[in-house]
Amino acid sequence: MGQIVKLDEARASRLLPNFIADEWVATDSRFDNIDPTTGEVIGSVCASGKGEVDRAVLAARAALKGPWGRMKSAQRIEMLHAIARRINERFKDFVEAETRDTGMPIHFAEHVDVPRGAANFQIFADLFANVPNETFTMDTPDGGTAVNYALRVPRGVIAVISPWNVPLLLTTWKLGPALACGNTVVLKPSEETPSCANLLAEVMAEVGLPEGVFNVVHGHGADAAGQWLTEHPGVDGITFTGETSTGEAIMRAAAKGVRPVSFEMGGKNSAIVFADADLDATIAGLARSCFQNTGQVCLGTEKVYVQRPVFDEVVARMKAVAEALKPGRPGEGGADFGPLNSRTHQAKVLSYYALAREEGAVQVTGGGVPAMPDHLKGGWWIEPTIWTGLGDDARVVNEEIFGPCCHIAPFDTEEEVIARANATEYGLAASVWTRDLGTAHRLGAALEVGVCWINSWFLRDLRTAFGGAKQSGIGREGGVHSLEFYTELRNVCVKL
Ligand code: NAD
Question: Is the ipTM of this complex over 0.90?
Fold first, then answer.
């Protein structure tokens, strides 16, 4: 069983303990937290054993019946606002933790990841405070009347399993609605990016969230904390973001006890550029969708289809943008392109770069590892890469790479491009670039995805439904849709 440690002592020894029932819990089983820009060890993470996972789930169960469970919804909403305010007060700490764990550029942390981390608490708190419940009045067989009304009750203990690519944003996207609905949570953050979970635990303690409402168990996935948490019978629902193959494993775990799941998973997203598009805006958006966060965005584009009259121009302009990206450490010398997140991920992306050559791709730019200054040589750097010339059946055109790369292919007709973009087992997102309103609306309806952007990318209104079609997800979160997973409807029928 783990030992209770003091936060300042853990900090001083660069140790990330677990957070269980308001206590910092260290274990002897440790793994390294690594800076992806240098490959250096920057801290040590305490892996939860089965005992810690069990304690966290029991603490979360007990908290459902404690002060949190009895709290008036207005108080709960105020507590979520306090969490959002505290994240903003500690903005710099979050930016530092996120950039150190992931290597993401400072501006991405400052303008996307951390602000959304705070907004995810505030917006869901406001939203759920204003959602009406359904009522139906009915005639009864004896000539009388009955009234039905629905109550929304928290689902219970929610297991949150999160990935490493945009850690704070993706974790709070689940924590915000889970807590706003009155659930309690056990979070298993990615083993690659553990720091923001501990900062969140500090924030929860600072605003006085009752004991056991929020718990963090660190560790790996299979045969480790992730698996033990999702298999735990005390968990009432599992929300997961990560790879589709991991989702399959979690679904098997969830089958025992018939626990509901909400899954946001992999993608192989298309961008479609019509010849009438505003090419300046298109290139800016397309480049962001391919290369932002070093291509480690689930919504990112890896397949680009360009209508033949503008194909050569789009390829040339995308090449110029890719070659202008400046790899480097967050905040150092104007760097706007970070490393990949881990050695394993770098090996995976490079294996696809090699595969593209084997499959006969024309390498327009990139394809390897950039030369870096001495102090960054140990990091997991990668070149932004563009290919052309592959057929639709090439593996590089069909499998999720999750790196800063895309294949650009020409197309002729609308009908043809819809079929080609839809010929995938994934269905997360797409973007369409055109000035023709009819084309835009037809594509929006025809593409088999959860989110279709027209003349934009990654423009998110948190009130809208978000999730993947096909093997990219199960269920929708966002706005009132999150209620479907984080609460249960209880119907009360009153005979008058
Ligand atoms: P991953 O599936 O490897 O890991 C995600 C989390 O699952 C980690 O916390 C990991 O420890 C845990 N895990 C792994 N095996 C497990 C198991 N057997 N049981 C329980 N937990 C387990 O994913 P990743 O590499 O961290 O993230 C990248 C993937 O996430 C990509 O496929 C990307 O498309 C996807 N993603 C999707 C979205 C979306 O909204 N659809 C958002 C971000 C990332």
Answer: yes
